[in-house]
């Protein structure tokens, strides 16, 4: 368990971060390792997962890869079983893997009323199915240990409702938030908390091209009280607070990390 002298310490815990090959997920893995945790690195890209594991091990961290598609129940489960056999049971889960549509047909200019299930299923596969799959595979370890933390990364889109091809993304992220609240109610008696973190526009590879457009960036930032884009570390700091002993009486909540965007709505 974490040190009683520092409730933010994660020594003795094992953290699974999905989508940890880059962006917010990678920064969460790095900072959790710096706080003493062992890390299971999931990414659908095996090379990215291996590279992060190598970096963590080079710093003295116990780490294992779990390269798999988080939305594929069997494939992901096999990868997690292998990682657990290597470094031990997982008691902190960060559901970070996401899909904003860059690789999905749903991110298309045609209106929603002209789409079909092949357009929106890719969003649900990662953003909702992925969070459910990961939680399903890890929850038994947490229940057995009578301790756990589940943190699901969602988006302001879950509350605002994005359009122009992003309707399904908004729905999937809202679903993930609702699922996380259900897990909080289901598992609290086992010493497990479950919360979501709703991110505003954060500098990650997923939006790098979009925010490089000066006009687009100016328009987005006009809605933020703190006039800058978030950094992966902004997100990681909140995620790891919720993962720590300091947040033991916080559960079933959605915490915005968005530069004050919530107040502008």
TrEMBL record:
Its main location: secreted. One of its GO terms (molecular function) is 3-oxoacyl-[acyl-carrier-protein] reductase (NADPH) activity. It catalyses: a (3R)-hydroxyacyl-[ACP] + NADP(+) = a 3-oxoacyl-[ACP] + NADPH + H(+). GO terms for biological process: monocarboxylic acid metabolic process. This is 3-oxoacyl-[acyl-carrier-protein] reductase MabA. It comes from Hoyosella subflava (strain DSM 45089 / JCM 17490 / NBRC 109087 / DQS3-9A1) (Amycolicicoccus subflavus). The keyword Secreted applies. It is found in: Secreted, Cell wall. Keywords: Cell wall, Oxidoreductase, Secreted. Belongs to the short-chain dehydrogenases/reductases (SDR) family. InterPro entries: NAD(P)-bd_dom_sf (IPR036291), Sc_DH/Rdtase_CS (IPR020904), SDR (IPR050259), SDR_fam (IPR002347). Pfam families: adh_short_C2 (PF13561). The keyword Ligase does not apply.
């Amino acid at each position: 368990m974490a040190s009683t002298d520092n409730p933010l310490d994660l020594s003795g815990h094992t953290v699974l971060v999905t989508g940890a090959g880059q962006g917010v997920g990678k920064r969460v893995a790095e900072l959790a390792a710096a706080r003493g945790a062992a890390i299971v690195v999931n990414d659908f890209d095996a090379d990215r997962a291996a590279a992060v594991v190598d970096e963590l091990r080079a710093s003295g961290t116990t780490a294992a890869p779990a390269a798999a598609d988080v939305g594929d129940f069997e494939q992901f489960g096999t990868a997690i079983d292998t990682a657990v056999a290597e470094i031990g049971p997982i008691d902190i889960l960060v559901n970070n893997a996401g899909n904003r549509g860059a690789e999905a047909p749903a991110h298309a200019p045609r209106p929603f009323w002209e789409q079909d299930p092949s357009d929106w299923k890719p969003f649900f596969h990662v953003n909702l199915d992925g969070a459910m799959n990961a939680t399903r595979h890890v929850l038994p370890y947490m229940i057995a240990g009578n301790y756990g933390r589940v943190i699901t990364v969602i988006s302001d889109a879950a509350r605002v409702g994005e359009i122009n091809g992003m309707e399904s993304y908004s729905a999937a992220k809202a679903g993930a938030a609702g699922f996380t609240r259900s897990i909080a109610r289901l598992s609290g008696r086992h010493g497990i908390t479950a919360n979501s973190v709703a991110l505003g526009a954060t500098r990650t590879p997923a939006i790098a091209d979009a925010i490089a457009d000066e006009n687009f960036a100016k328009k987005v930032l006009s809605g933020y009280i703190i006039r800058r884009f978030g950094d992966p570390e902004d997100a990681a700091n909140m995620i790891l607070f919720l993962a720590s002993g300091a947040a033991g009486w916080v559960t079933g909540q959605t915490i915005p990390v968005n530069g004050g965007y919530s107040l502008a709505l």
